[in-house]
Amino acid sequence: MRIIVGISGGIAAYKAPMLVRLLKKNGHDVQCVATSHALQFVTPLTLQTVSGHAVYSDLFAESNDFSTEHIALKDWADAIVVAPATANIIAKMAAGVADDALSTTLLSMAGKRRFVCPAMNSDMLHAPATQRNIEQLRADGVTIIESAVGELACGCVGDGRMAESEEIYSRLISSMEAPLAGKKVLITAGPTYERIDAVRFVGNFSSGKMGYALAEVMAEQGAEVVLVSGPTHLTTRHSGIRRIDVESARQMYSAAVETFPSCDAAVLCAAVADYRPEHCADHKLKKNGNKGLTIEMVQNPDILATLGKMKREGQTLVGFALETNDERANAKSKLERKNLDMIVLNSLRDKGAGFGVDTNKVLIIKRDGSEVEGELKSKRAVAEDIVRELKLK
Ligand code: CTP
Asked: For the chain, does the N or the C end have fewer beta carbons within 10 angstroms?
């Protein structure tokens, strides 16, 4: 592939030559476009040596034809990755400002794949203006590559450290190659709310972060994702994700059953309430003197088991399991019973795993009995592992 590495003026610019080298080593052609501030941190000679091309930095340098250089670059490139991206270049991109070689090139590449690796002081990163600009870039179809350590599955960016070159490289390549292009995937995520009366419900603490991270990773790899989501505060950013918002298990069931037949795979991540109140009062229940309250509960349909019965040749079905005892044996029997291809066992024992937090630790068990045990990592990284093991390509 032909890739432009855009470099703006932050200390992390010293890592840019490493990214260029990694791309070159793997057979890609690279040209560097740097801001004048970037060249305070890394020399043009270094960039030129690792890329094998002159560095484009000055719109009006005698060696270029300023009116066409950035257009020629746009036509040449398959993608541009800005690493590091300062708050300033992110703001310029969000606003469409074109006042130097890098911002001009970026604006001319609005129709191409663009990747941005934020790197800045964490206060600057968390400033509302920067967060707004990053959201704007996402809405414009730019892929934001954050460091796995700093990244929060909720969508806010973490501590401002730039992702390592290897991480940027692998995100860039997997996204460009779109290994899941042409695949359609159903994902369920979040909790379900089961109404008691007009203002109360029975729910659970699921945040939806794991399912949203999965949706994001699969969409980035080119899949068409249908995300059936229980109530959460999370937002979806990728245009490849169609979100269907539901509240109760029965609504989730209907959406999933309707969507599954046209899908290549389904990953059921949602924490579905197994029971719902038999009756839902259409008004607010009043206190009843000093007496207690008994709510009759009835069983909800099992979405995973239903899809397991519907599953046809060529479809892949993945479930999650949260077990407190005999974890492996229970997960394996769930896999058999519900006709799954893979089950992801959540650990409840490990600190930092499970509900609400940004990290998770899972054991993946496949139908053939093989297992992949993961470390504690960001939900995004866990999602990448799950997608890799799915082997949908
Ligand atoms: N699940 C579902 N529909 C339900 C309940 C669960 O689709 N009504 C899915 C979850 O999304 C998850 C998997 O089933 O992928 C496992 O849920 P879990 O609550 O661990 O297991 P159950 O099947 O409910 O079994 P048990 O409560 O007996 O452990």
From this structure: C
